Every structure is written in C-alpha cells, then in structure tokens.
Amino acid sequence: MTTRSEGRPVAVVTGAGNGLGAVIAAHLHRSGHRVAVVDVDEAAATTVAGDLDGTGETARAYGLDVTDRGAIEDLLTTLLESWGDVQVLVNNAARTQATPLLEISSEELASVMAVNIGGTFAACQVFGRHMAAAGYGRIVNLGSLAGQNGGTATGGHYASSKGAVLAATKVFARELASAGVTVNAVSPGPLDLPVVRRIVGEADVDRFAETIPVGRLGSPEFIAEMVALLASPGAASVTGACWDANGGLYVR
C-alpha cells in the first residue's frame, strides 16, 4: 500500500519545540520532508509535530536531551525502524543564559557547553556515521553571530559554544566529504523571535533594530530557507561553509 510519505526524505531537527527550530521544521515539512521534531520538551515537540501532520505519518515528535549520547543513538535506531533512513540532520538545540561573563559558574559553563557543542558534536558523530555508510547526507549546524564577534548578550558561554560549533562544522565536513555527506553552518544575527524580544525588551525592539545596519531584525523563515537549501541534494559542492545572515553586524 502506497502512502503519501513514501519518497519523502527524512529530516531530524533538534530544539524544534519552539522558536527557530519549529520554523525550520515547518519549512522542511512544507518542502517535502518527513520531519522528526526533537526537543527536550516532548510536549512542545508534540504540539509542533501535530500542527504539521496530526496523523503522524510525515511529522513525529521525540523527547530528547541532546546531552545524552545514548538517546541520540536510540533516536537514529527508532527512525531507521519507522521511516527507513535519515538524510538530513539540523542541529538547532541550544541553551542561552544571559549571565554576566565574570559571574558564570563552572557548573553553568559545563551545562551550556554540554547542550550547545556537546549535543551538536555527538549528533554529528552518530548521524554522520550512518549517513557516510549510506553514501549520502546533509548536516546543518546552527551557529550564531555571537560565536563570530564575541557578543555576550546571550551569555559568554553561549558565544564560546557557538564558536566551537563553527569549528566542529569544519572538522566534520573534512571527515565526511568523501562519503557524500556535507556539513555546513548557518549563523544568524538577531532574529524576530520571542526570545530576542524578551532579551532586548519589547519596548526597546525598534531602538535595537536601528543599531543593525539594515535596520531590522532578521526573518526566521529566511533562515529556514537557508537551512533547506543547504539540506538539498543540489548543495553537494558546499561543505564546511558558514552562511551569515546578520543584517551587516559582522562582515568578513
């Protein structure tokens, strides 16, 4: 019996229970992917997946702490059993905590690093190994302007972790290129998302936007389009790259 999900590539999006991850998951789903909506908040992931496809045929929710490597391995096994393969991994899960730089404790530093770089690194290993064996794959890691210019509005440990994500993107790209797997990053600047408005303060959003050379917050949907383009079969010659979308705040 033929189902409407057959022939649709499978994409895993971490941190997809809200914010940018949910936008990316929705865009990939609209563009023809089956999407595993992954988040530490399983209830939030379930809501997002249900909005995409209430039948669960082309969108499913998975509760997952990306700091748990065993859970990542179990997720891959589950997806292979249920959907047969995984072609796309989007590492979006991240933790931000705007603690003043000199007040960040060792415990808080370790916690942020464990999610932001530890989770990304482990997922690249687990899914990258599978994709390499299959001879095809697309991995997209979410970096950040903070990881490029050292901004601390979302925490110095967050910025440091995102710098590490960009380095990890390069090393995995080199390792997996010959196996048909590309690994790239997208580094957004301030986006028009609730988390940004909360950090800036709703009353100060317009004033903050004036400090951005283009005069506006970035579009989450456009970031999702960038991710989808890097996740497409046609992006075979792009690997180890970081695509910036920061409104001109960082130019290189």
- Mind summarizing the main beta sheet? 7 strands, parallel
Strand order of the largest sheet: 3-2-1-4-5-6-7
What portion of residues is helical?
A: 40-55%
Which regions have little confidence, pLDDT < 50, spanning 5+ residues?
none
* Helix/strand order: EHEHEHEHEHHEHHHE
**What CATH first level would be assigned?**
Alpha Beta
* Percent strand: 15-25%
> How many strand segments?
7
Please tell me the overall pLDDT: 96
The best one-word shape is globular
CA radius of gyration: 17 Å
SSE class? alpha/beta
How would you portray this structure in words?
By secondary structure, the protein is an alpha/beta fold. The chain has a single domain, classed as Rossmann fold. It contains nine helices and seven strands. It has a seven-stranded parallel β-sheet with strand order 3-2-1-4-5-6-7, sandwiched between helices. Strand 2, helix 2 and strand 3 form a beta-alpha-beta unit. Helix 1 packs across helix 9, helix 3 runs parallel beside helix 4 and helix 4 packs parallel to helix 6. The longest helix is centred in the middle third of the chain and has 29 residues. 46% of the residues are buried. The model has no long low-confidence stretch (mean pLDDT 96).
